Amino acid sequence: MHNHSEDSTLSFDDNQQTETTLSVEAFRKLNRSQELTYFLGCDLRKREIDGLTPFYLPHILSYVDEDLSFVLAELKEKGMCGNF
Fold first, then answer.
1. Percent of the chain beyond pLDDT 70?
2. What is the pTM for the complete model shown?
3. Distance of CA 78 to the CA centre of its chain
4. Whole-angstrom distance, CA of residue 59 vs CA of residue 62
5. What CA–CA distance (Å, rounded) separates 63 from 28?
C-alpha cells in the first residue's frame, strides 16, 4: 500500500485503493445489536399475544438505537456512507 523511498517520505500507489474499516467499538456495537434483536425475536415468539408490551422492550430498543447511531455516524465520518 505504501511505497517507502530512500528519504523516508511516504507515497501512495495510484493503482491501489486504501482500505477503510470500522473501529473495534463499532464492530462490537453491531454485534451487540444483532444479539439483542435475536434475543428479542426469540423471546417475543415464545410469549402469548395478550396485548401487554414486555417491560424491557423500550430499554432494549434504546440500546439498539444508540449502537446503530454510533455505527452510522462512524460510517459517515469515514466516507463509507453518503449523507441521506
1. 71
2. 0.67
3. 13
4. 5
5. 13
